[in-house]
Amino acid sequence: MSQPVLIKIYAHFAPVTDDVVRELEDCVSSAICAEDFTGPIVSTLGDMVRLSFEGIYFPEEEVADIVRRAVEDGASGKMDVLDLENWHMTRYEGKDHVLHRSGAPLNNVLDFSGF
């Protein structure tokens, strides 16, 4: 029997350096993915880094700290953390050298997005 997915992460930030990508790869090595999750958690497209994750544990605070430093250096983008166990979404949005954090119950998010 497979374990249920408790957390989903979707993110993109650019421009980032290769050092940031390596830091993220090292950091997410402690994540515990769903059994059927097949993709890499960290991927790149040019100078953009993307995070995609489904599973039961993700080092959110540590990743947010790495992303915060990248945003302070000029990156922009967002990271959405969907906590399915507590039915809550946290959004980290980086722009103008500042990483902002906000959150809302998933019901509010789904209502806003038209689902």
Automatic annotation (TrEMBL):
This is Uncharacterized protein. It comes from Candidatus Desulfovibrio intestinipullorum.
